[in-house]
Fold these 4 entries.
Entry 1:
Amino acid sequence: MILVSSCLAGLEVRYNGSHCLEQSLAQLVTDNKALPICPELLGGFVTPREPAEVIGGDGEDVLKGKARVVERTGKDVTDLYLKGAQLTLEKAQELQATFIVLKDYSPSCGSSMIYNGSFQQHKIDGVGVTAALLKKHGIRIVSEANIADVLNGK
């Protein structure tokens, strides 16, 4: 089974109530070849919500307790991101997911790049909290930029 970030499947679950539809991924969901999942909603967030970014590193640093996830207003929401990551991991293991397509730049789902914590749209190399936890457990992470590879079986 393939899991896909819900926003990439066209569900309006992003912090601002929007989506990032990738038609090919939505079609996989429609064809019952993939399931949408949103770590942030699993963690207890609602839509819309304040934007959040990782401060002091990336998702791997959050797992180690060396960085935090903070909303633009300054509220620390690290625990909700960790909860969402754990529940996503459990669902991936339960479904024996072969890989997960995640939305880059997200503090949860970023698979290769995230925002740097300045809330100024500056991007850095790094992974989100959920991506870090999934990778730690050997689950293959793919960004939406590599959808062609996924669809071609790479």
Entry 2:
Amino acid sequence: MTPITIFHNPACGTSRNVLALIRHSGVEPKVVEYLKHPPSRDELVQLLAAMRMPVRELLRRKGTPHDELGLDASHWTDDQLLDFIVQHPTLMNRPIVVTPLGTRLCRPSETVLDLLPGPLPGPFSKEDGEPVIDAEGRRVVR
């Protein structure tokens, strides 16, 4: 069984779709509800390095204290931004998926397909009915 970890928020539709796609692939991932069990600062640094992503790209605005904290200001250093994420886990965009094939912020949800062992059994549709995998297990391209 392939080890997969998802940093998940069950209230997020994208996160739920990614989790469902992982399970559709036949793998039961380790699910980390990061609002209940936030990653440590060191884990955040490791995740960002694995994704080759700057801290600012991990910041989420909607439903967070991003704007009231003024996190768009250029004077905030990466270290300070990491501290904000540790203090306010809602600032971390999601879902982040870690697999042997890589680590990615999976927005849109289909991004997770690049990290899953294939072929996938088909078909699969998102919660809203949008098809993602066809009957032959191939990614639906729009």
Entry 3:
Amino acid sequence: MEPAADQGATVVITHRVRADKHAEYEAWLQEIAPLCKAAPGHLDWHIVRPIAGLTETYTVIIRFDTAANLRQWMESPARAQLINKVLPLFVKGDDFFVSSGLDFWFTPAGAQAKVPVRWKQYLVTWSAIYPLVMGVPLLIAPLMQALGLPEQRWLSTLAVTATVVFLMVYVVMPRYTKLIKRWLFS
């Protein structure tokens, strides 16, 4: 599924490089990085290098201001030429995943699956947020009273929304999507 054009977009690229080819790959990165960074809409470029003796995988994370600009870079002749040049260094091909918005909630760690259809994202998000929105205020209000904080709507709303988002991102969605992944990705 393609991100909306105005949301911005991120691509996560993984390259599993042959053990004896890391120096050549690093030289190749020096060649492709300036071209990517000069592409229209480029925002950010990060490289997560492998840990010696543990992994051979490089992860390159690139952010663009729009999905269209990201697509333009990913499909550019310059990138295609450089990917063809580096392919012999790889154990496996040029793997990448494009995401934006809340799509990260719907991709379990290590999943090869792409983002599920939007209506399933809607149902899953709604079914996770509803009980939190109903229950968290019942916990936050007494806690704020016990702490002697003033009863102000903006302050309680701030505390409730911060708690709901924290729970969604770190507790609920990683477990929930793992639990229902068969249905979610079917």
Entry 4:
Amino acid sequence: MKVLFAAAAAAGLLVASPTFAQGFGQETYLNVGYTSFALDQVRGQDVSDADFNLGAVTGRFGSKLNTNFGLEAELGVGVQDQEATLRTTTVTSKLNYEAAAFAVGYLPVTTSTELFARVGVGRIEIESEVTPPTGAASGGGAQTIFGLGVGVQHFFDGVNGIRGDYTRYTGEERGAEADALGISYVRRF
């Protein structure tokens, strides 16, 4: 159901984006894709050895203010939960949402390909349940995250393209750290 809702919202944004795009910066864009979050820590517990991955359908709306600088907003809705066992402890986690705003720097490589770096801040909500042999404990909630990332995007015909990116997220509290890899379709307006 989450995937259907996210896809419907993305389709609605694609249809409405040309109207919203007028009046922003030099170029506006919308992208929709999939992001995999590889967790290093959940509630302060190291889970990096367990290949702990959560997935999200992610959408971004951005505006390039000039050739080399822009801003983008990002929203991800969780679609893949994960359960992992570390020694005698089972950790089950679920990504509810991730929302962030980024400042983005661009470096054009060719007329159709550009590299970018981004830095931003946002919120993430992950629910987790830790089940040690003596009983279960659950928790979660939203927390502030800081992101630093890099990526590349290539446009096939000037307006339609593909984007790949990596972002390192660090939580402000409760020991949350994750690496995010994403791939998405990009549409420029």
